[in-house]
Amino acid sequence: METSKVIHAIYNDDDVLMAAVKKVKAERYHIEEIYTPFHIHGLDKAMGLAPTRIAIVSFMFGCVGLIVAVVMMNYMMISDWPQDIGGKPSFSYIENMPAFVPIMFELTVFFAAHLMVITFYLRSRMWPFKKAENPDPRTTDDHFLMEIAVHGNQSELESLLKETGAVEINIVDKEAH
Amino acid sequence: MASHYEAPIRRPLIIGEKSYHDISVDIARPVEGRANKQWWIVFSIALTAFLWGIGCIIYTISTGIGTWGLNKTIGWAWDITNFVWWIGIGHAGTLISAVLLIFRQKWRMGINRSAEAMTIFSVLQAGLFPIIHMGRPWLAYWVMPIPNQFGSLWVNFNSPLIWDVFAISTYLSVSIVFWWTGLLPDFAMIRDRAVKPFQKKIYSLLSFGWSGRAKDWQRFEEVSLVLAGLATPLVLSVHTIVSYDFATSIVPGWHTTIFPPYFVAGAVFSGFAMVNTLLIIMRKVCNLEDYITVQHIELMNIVIMITGSIVGVAYMTELFIAWYSGVEYEQYAFLNRATGPYAWAYWIMMTCNVFSPQFMWFKKLRTSIMFSFFISIVVNVGMWFERFVIIVTSIHRDYLPSSWTMFSPTFVDTGIFIGTIGFFFVLFLLYARTFPVIAQAEVKTILKSSGERYKKIREAGQSLVGTGSDVRISNSARDNSKNLKK
Fold this sequence. Notes:
- The complex is a heterodimer.
- By secondary structure, chain A is of the alpha+beta class.
- Chain A has helices at residues 14-26, 43-47, 54-80, 97-123, 154-163; strands at 3-11, 31-35, 144-149, 168-175.
- Helices cover 46% and strands 16% of the residues of chain A.
- A four-stranded antiparallel β-sheet of chain A has the order 2-3-1-4, covered by helices on one side.
- In chain A, helix 3 runs antiparallel to helix 4.
- Chain A is rod-shaped, with a radius of gyration of 26 Å.
- In chain B, helix 9 crosses helix 10 (328-339).
- Chain B is 69% helix and 0% strand.
- Chain B contains 17 helices and no strands.
- Chain B has helices at residues 20-32, 37-63, 78-102, 112-132, 160-193, 197-206, 214-247, 259-285, 294-325, 328-339, 343-355, 363-366, 369-396, 411-434, 440-450, 452-459, 471-484.
- The chains are: A alpha+beta, B mainly alpha.
- Chains A and B meet through helix 1, strand 2, helix 2, helix 3 and helix 4 of A and helix 1, helix 5, helix 6, helix 7 and helix 15 of B.
């Protein structure tokens, strides 16, 4: 593994950071990563990140939940033991369907919510013993860190970032992936 | 900046000269500090009540349900009253975190964390009752549709009690993941501030390695929004399903189509009252008056007023329909509530639920912290009686006069209820000392639009660009970061 250098520009204001991102993008530099203490509205767009598809995934999980509920109750209440419980019609699913609606609903929500959250944790690589990867502890408090790879253009980059209002610029060796 | 535009009519939600760093410090303070004497006193009282409740539960399970005040006519009383009451209290937490998120209410950010904690802790209390009120609680797992050696004998999905199992387990589990996901950036903030190695380890574990990347935040926002979208129908469905326990019966006084929305309104009503009770104390004890302001309390009071009025309309509707129905059983059920042996309970309920929220029309009263605290207690008493009145007065006198009887609780009934209150406060007190009680990452997003200091800057016609820096820490942090560099 060769090591390459990255530049860490630290900002202490979200509006300054936003302006900096736009400027750095306009100069056609690739921003590797930005670490922020809170969600900055529009930052993902400014960086050019693709929109997340997690809501679509959640919808599909919800459909799975609904199917599970219907198949389960149809099997247990209509196919396996079609008993008369208090005069409820158990001849077909549709006849007794109103009584199945609450569980159809709950299982849809259950699957959509939990499987989406699990997807989020896996996709964003977060789990209980995961080591935090933010390079500076201040980025969870009130500092904002922009990471840009250095390819022999260190001094230009530094002056550009200084110009955008970075309060601190560090050059860090980073293991290339 | 255009992104921080806010109408000048809005009052600040964060008071004082706060910077982003001040928010971290203020919210981390109770976690990093040590518990004082008052905390230990209150905690001991709650723990004692909890242990007493455990004793009563063990006594019930080992001796039998006959230790309670139930009889052959009244098979449900305090157990289900407390269950519905606790479930109802839990609903405000989801309302605040989900419904107010969908409506983009910025004021929810100061209170949502504690409201969600309250949800989880009160649903846990509620969840005890369906198990301990069983005659054979050790067979409780039979409510689950698990393949088995009885030819695979299944559950009956026609029963609202089975719907309850699904509703409550879904509600509790979804509430927990919603809450926990929101906690990750806040745990990460405490992790990165921690000086003690043990504390650092614990919060590293709890924060799941949250790093605050732009992509993480993008997904985080979407996940929060989808969960809010799922939690909103969920919260409505859960109390609806709880109300089906009664509404699908054939008992006069229970068999009503108004129950689902009316129970939900009652749940929001009692839940917001409980949030108010807790937050009025918490803002004082944890020195968070700058984040949980009188405006927050006033807005919660307005919600209490609205939902209290909805509950009032529901009471009137029930009475009208009973009269209009021409069914003498139904008419008698309501006559019995108002004038029968439990009239005192009915009139306590009416006074607390219908009249007390109407005081909130007066600005002087709804912006008074003392008065809000008092009313929030009154509402919770009233809502307990609502459930008690609906349950007990409907079954102690119904179709057959030869089955008419009365109910009085034993010390075991009351002991278990006291125990759940104790357990609730044990959990809440532990939470208040170990968890960030305000969602700091969310509050930071509204600082520039709703902070008092920034409102002043904007009103003076100055730009907000660059105002997020805190001189006090930026200078000292500079030397600090030299050591951190790899």
